[in-house]
Amino acid sequence: MNDSIGLIGLGSLGLPLAENILAAGHPLTVYNRTPHKAKPLGDKGATVAASASEVAQTCRYVITLLSDDAALKEVTLTDEFARNLGADGIHISMSTIAPQTARQLAEHHARFDARYVAAPIFGRPAAVAAKQAWVCVSGDAEAKEQVKPILSAIVAQGLYDFGDEPSTANVVKLAGNFMIGAAMEAMAEAMTVAEKNGVSRQALIDMFSSTMFASPIYKNYGTMIARQVYDENVGFRLPLGLKDMNLVLQMASEVKAPMPLAQLVQSRLVSALAKGRENWDWTGLAYGASEDAGTHS
Description:
- Keywords: NAD, Oxidoreductase.
- The chain is of the alpha/beta class.
- The protein has helices spanning 14-23, 39-43, 52-58, 69-76, 79-85, 99-110, 125-129, 141-154, 168-196, 201-208, 216-227, 238-254, 260-274, 287-293; strands spanning 5-8, 28-31, 47-48, 61-64, 90-93, 115-118, 121-122, 133-139, 156-161.
- The chain contains 14 helices and nine strands.
- Strands 1, 2, 3, 4, 5, 6, 7, 8 and 9 form a nine-stranded mixed beta sheet that branches.
- It is globular.
């Protein structure tokens, strides 16, 4: 087995990641449950595998970027996948999943001497393409040291190590996504009350995102919320946002940590989906504040 990289999942983040891996000169094998998404990468030199287990058999490093826990378990929580990965193989899971799922995968892989590293990613597709995402890692110490240079070369402007417990990086990822959702709700409410008092939504966020709240979340998401155009430049769809908020509340319930603000964000997402907005970006949860105030168009 060589140092080739396998990538399972060619969605909005997986596709630019695959392009980066090829551009860096790594041998790449890809698999996607919807086969036609893999063809353009095959035309660019990637090997297109017929199954996830085939990827594990031919690649030392296997990255997964799948939409949810069920999809990840379906293709990697099998004896065949773990056996094919073997003692030299490392599964790098970049999906946003429940901490319990990360522990389950790490334990299952260990039965076959394969190693597991959690490496969930913070970044929209453009940030991934520009290798400007942030990545949290946790899991086997030796395996992490092997994959960190790879992650730095293909996707991350920064890596943060949260220890040897496989699930901790996913705890951080879910906590971060909750904070983003809460920030979007706060921006939506602030812009709505400002607008009803004669202040431009854009002027408000221009000031705050350049001063007290100078961060990509307020600057980039804030501009989308100010414009109230949520079905363009969709990087993370509303159903995935709801999936993540459900995971946040599940995680909180397991340790008896009340999260009333997370419940509010979850409710916004449910309401948006009930109104047929499945194809909106998850920033569209912010539209609920305008609807409640009677200022929506």
